[in-house]
Structures are given as structure tokens and as C-alpha cells.
Design a protein that fits this description.
The complex is a heterodimer of chains A (about 120) and B (about 120).
Chain A: E1 4-7, E2 10-13, E3 19-25, E4 31-38, E5 42-51, E6 54-57, E7 64-66, E8 76-78, E9 87-94, E10 107-108, E11 112-116
Parallel strand pairs in A: 2-11
Antiparallel strand pairs in A: 1-3, 3-8, 4-5, 4-9, 5-6, 7-8, 9-10, 9-11
Chain B: E1 3-5, E2 10-14, E3 19-21, E4 24-26, E5 32-39, E6 46-52, E7 60-61, E8 64-69, E9 74-79, E10 88-96, E11 104-105, E12 109-114
Parallel strand pairs in B: 2-12
Antiparallel strand pairs in B: 1-4, 3-9, 5-6, 5-10, 7-8, 8-9, 10-11, 10-12
Classes of the chains: A mainly beta (about 120), B mainly beta (about 120).
Chain lengths: ~120, ~120
Amino acid sequence: DGGITQSPKYLFRKEGQNVTLSCEQNLNHDAMYWYRQDPGQGLRLIYYSQIVNDFQKGDIAEGYSVSREKKESFPLTVTSAQKNPTAFYLCASRDLSRTGPNTGELFFGEGSRLTVL
Amino acid sequence: AQTVTQSQPEMSVQEAETVTLSCTYDTSESNYYLFWYKQPPSRQMILVIRQEAYKQQNATENRFSVNFQKAAKSFSLKISDSQLGDTAMYFCAFMKLGYGNKLVFGAGTILRVKS
């Protein structure tokens, strides 16, 4: 079945460590996104990519990095510079060629919960 | 920049009754899309309903319908005949038209359906 796979589901990190969250999609979607979810703040965009080897900062990119070497993969690295990394992270993708009534729909992974010890 | 506001952090409704979730947004764009996404306790986000701003007719999907007031920049979600499976966090989202534009989400409303 087509979809988005995020791993790991749960991750614990010690302060000062970098960690990488994986996001893989087999939907052949052009665009991929990383959102951070905190209680009471909804989803905030970290980074997004519309094409391989290109990506843009979202609203809260500081302390994070991404790469888009393959269309199906968009890993997110949470660096030690991120001051408050404990959160739920959601990866999503979108088919940019869709028009009309199917425009804009995001497909989400099941999320990764990162806890800093 | 666009902003999306959901003024109701939590709501509850009895099973089989109707509930309305509010959403307002701020934009200077004239062409855009609005969405309601549902996030159940499993945390898997799914699209509930979508509205194109150029369409005057309100979107409906089975028990879910919207009241889209473009001039007032309001986009409320009505859930009829509420079911226990409707218990979830609901997010309103905005996207302006154009290649690669990203979605902007509201803070969400927790809906609890009671038996």
C-alpha cells in the first residue's frame, strides 16, 4: 500500500546529541514537509521540499536540518542547537501536480515522538 | 502572512447530537483552499473536508459540512449525528493557490464525544 513511513515511533535523546528522524514515502509525491506539534500550538512548519536537492525553511527551522537526496526520502536531523526538542514530529507529502478538487491534500505519516532526557 | 485561529481549545458533545467547530483566518489572498483535518488518539492525521474559496457552495462530506463565509473569513465545521469515533483533535488549515504553497494550521480543537 502507498503511504508515508516515519521511524522511529519513539526516540529518546540525551542533551547535546543530534538525532535523525526518518521519513519515506512511496506515493511519488513531489513535496514533503516536516511539522512539529506541541500542545496548544497546532502544527508548525520546520522545513519543506518541493523537489529533489532543494528545500526551504519553514517557520521554526532553527536547530533543525534536512536533506532531500531522493524523491521518496526527507530525513530530519534535530541538532543539539535546538533548545527544546521534546515534541511530536509529523512528516507529510503532497502531489503538486494535482489540480481541481484534489488540490492541496497533505498525506501524513504516523509521527515520531522525541523526548530529551 | 496568513494566520488561522481556532478559538475553542476543547469541546464536548453527546453522541448523536450536532456540534460546530469554529475557525477564522486572516489573508489578503482571494484564491485559496481551506481544510479541516482530524487527528484521532492514534495521532494519524486525515483530511475531513476541503473548500475552494472561489466556490460559494459549502462543501459537505457525509456527516461533515462547512459554513464558509468568505467576507467574514470564517470557516466552521459542523458534525452531525456525532459518533464516538469522531473524538479527536480537529485542525483548520489554509493554503493559498500556487505551486508548492504550504499549509498553515490553527492550534486545534479537541472534540470529545460522550455516550
